[in-house]
Amino acid sequence: MKLRIKFTRLMLRFHRRVILKVALFWQTRWGERSFLVTLSILIGAVAAVAAAGLHMLVTKFEEFGIWLTEPHAFQEYIYLTLLLCLPMLGLCASFIIQRVLGGPRYAKSLSPLILSLSRKRTNIPALEMISHMLSSAFSVGFGGSAGLEAPSVLTGAAIGANGAGFFRVNRVRRNLLIGCGAAAAISAIFDSPIAGVLFAAEVLLPEISVSALVPMVMSSAVAAVISRMISQGNHFEFVTEPWRTDSVPSYFILGLISALVGVYVIRCAYFTADKLKSRFRSPYQRLFVGGGLLCVLLFLFPTLRGQGYLYIEKLFKGNLSEIANNSPLLSQLPSETLILVIVFIAVLLFKVVVSVLTVDSGGDGGIFAPSMFIGAFTGFGFARLVNLTGIVELQECNFVAVGMCGVFTAVMRAPLTGIFLIAEVTGGYILLVPLMIVSAVSYLLARIFEPNSIYRKALVENNLLDDDRDRTMLRSLPVRLCLNRNYHVLKVDQSLERLVNLVEGTPEEIFPVLDDDGKLLGVVHLEKVLSVMLNPQTYGLLLVMDLMESPVGTVTPDDDLAYAMANFEKFNLNYLPVCDSSGIFHGFIAKAPIFAKYRKMVNEANAF
């Protein structure tokens, strides 16, 4: 014990006397920009190793699950039992990891991260650099239907935040380094450095300036290089063909269909999660009830298991027979066409359901991969139906790719990310124009039916986030930062003559009227006092209570500046009284300091 304490003190002393001094020397000698770029490279490298480690861990768990359920090793009923129960085993292991490492408030979605970034709250526990990796590996590796992108992004964000904290980077720059970690995670998973940067810029940090993209570009590029060195190439084999002009109308139609499918994904995800949480409030109930329902659905439709990229590759190659023969129960049906119809319907209707059950029942994962999975089946199904009509011959592999882009864009509201992600994972940009068409149509139409992305929907509906950049920046600051505590207190029974003497010696434009307990009773405006001063004969007749007005637009010290600005506009005031929940007066807040604070924030956001 004593040895460990001595070692800890030694490391803290080394960190303070060596590492921090080296960091300070670097910034003094070569500037803050070069230091941030260097730090972004380190963050990208670590995030790439973490993403590659997660991918390999899931692969090992999947191989173990395949070996465990190998039908030749056991009797048939034992094989079916293992196939049924294996996802529950992964959920239980994931649930235990979350409880041990994360506690009851373990965040599995990107929504809390988006909210924290918008409010400049960049402290992420160091345990999240490994907790999401372990938790999602068991969930997805044992058959749970979710993606690894969200856990990887959360892991990369934790690496960025703790790397910034280790080198004592100021809070203004920490959001940028968190974005570097997130961009590196996406880049490492898909071998798509451009999509990683765009994802961080569109989804996590929409208010970031163009110049601030430089560190994220470096971090994403380094992650792609390291990931390729570890995995020896791309993880996917998505091959497309040059697009034809006679298919352009079909791409517009697919964009419309993708938008509707994306809206269904968002609403079904929230509906399923709300029903599960409202009916089963205990996490243990959700684990066994939701996990049990998940096991049944995955047993009926094994195509829904895991991330689904294996089946996307089969769609690109046109291997429908392997998809049809995948289910031990559906394979009993006499017609392969009937099996495929049932599988496609199950994918479109139930993939989002099993994904929500995987995450909210106790597992860990994201909706990133399920959206692309649904999009791939949507694109292929549309192309196959059109080809069956004989009106036009569509390239089915191309429509698989653009369908992935369309549904992804509708769900994430990240059109540029969708375009370049699919362009990069398919190994080229030959589908750039169709991707642009489908992404744009899907994005515009989806916003009509569902204004917010799947990550921002709950935040916006609960008034925690706003799409307006100005309001988003003001929401990150509380009223107390601009509070003016210099004021002269008035009492209701004071004479007007004393008030006039006070006005002549102070620059204040508004005065609070308080009771003996410090609670605000009203306010007196300077303009009203000046108008009364024109008639000195009333001095002896009027008291403060005669000039007092009821306070309007009152805010609390913990309200954000966006709420204060809304009250300024609503009541057409230049000053707002600030009181706590019990009515105790704390001071005034004026418009001018808020504008000054906002200009400072804009300059900091645009500076790199």
Question: Can you walk through the features of this model?
Answer:
There is one protein chain. By secondary structure, the chain is mainly alpha-helical. 66% of the residues lie in helices and 4% in strands. The strands form 2 sheets. The chain has a two-stranded antiparallel ribbon. The chain is elongated.
Number of helices: 25
Chain-averaged pLDDT:
84
Assign an overall shape. elongated
Radius of gyration: 29 Å
CATH hierarchy, class of the largest domain: Mainly Alpha
Order of helices and strands: HHHHHHHHHHHHHHHHHHHHHEEHHHEEH
Question: What would the keywords be for this entry?
Answer:
4 strands, two-stranded antiparallel ribbon, 3 domains, 608 residues, mainly alpha, Clc chloride channel
Secondary structure layout:
Blueprint: H1 2-30, H2 32-68, H3 76-101, H4 111-118, H5 128-141, H6 149-166, H7 171-190, H8 193-204, H9 213-231, H10 248-279, H11 283-300, H12 309-317, H13 320-324, H14 336-360, H15 368-389, H16 396-412, H17 415-425, H18 432-449, H19 457-461, H20 469-475, H21 496-504, E1 510-514, E2 520-525, H22 526-533, H23 544-547, H24 561-571, E3 575-579, E4 585-590, H25 591-606
Antiparallel strand pairs: 1-2, 3-4
In short:
With 608 residues, the chain is mostly helical.
